[in-house]
Amino acid sequence: MAPNAEPDDDFPWWLVILAITGLWLLYAMLSDAAYKGALTVLSKGLAVTLAVAVVAYLGACGIGLGLAMMGMSRRLVLRQAARLYIEVMRGVPIIVLLLYVAFVLVPGVVAGVNALVGEDVLRTRDVPLLWRAVLALMLAYSAFLAEIFRAGLQAVEKGQIEAAMALGLNGWQRFRHVRFPQAFRLILPPLGNDFVAMVKDSSLVAVLGISDVAQLAKVTAAGNFRYFETYNVAAFLYLVMTIGLSLLLRRFETRMRSRGQDAS
Questions:
Q1: I want to staple 230 with a disulfide (CB 3.0 to 4.6 A). Which of 33, 145, 205, 221 is the partner?
Q2: Among residues of the chain, what percentage have pLDDT more than 70?
């Protein structure tokens, strides 16, 4: 094989090894009482884990896209405001932001609303910890997604925008039909990576006592002292989620790429 030759696509032996290992581990878990008990309990937290990740990620995408547009605005105030938000959010650890939102920001907003209205119309406990956790993850990831959106939008060739202007499309039409679709194909891989990272970082909500996989693992292990089996099951469930999502996103990226090539 020549030094500069392009290698053929590797057969995914790593996936075969993981699949065989995963099936063997699943069989072992179902055959052992301790593993089976931990798997039964921890599986109840899968819905919470995925719900937190999906809702927080969708919200972060919306905020991040807005921040990206602000960062590309002609107005200095909007650009500086977006940069300030992004730098602050990226500089604070997610777990610190999680605790700050849950126990400082939300109570402060509740107190402000009550002071504005003039009576106690809202109490801090009326805002569930689950939604405080979702808000914190949303704010944290919006800063990272803003940079991804900005890079993708700026990567679209100016000639495409000028051609759309020549066709008489207004600003919103140019963004919807020309700029964003092309940028989306470019930023799809990093967006997918951040979603997988969100699934993993959703385990941080356990510090607020939310019954996701990580919290149920902590409570279960503290109750039966079977730390080895319990955390093996927790790791197994997170690997199934993250690897499964990665494969689905990779397939979606391939389909989007082939559609873009067919269109061109």
A1: 221
A2: 94
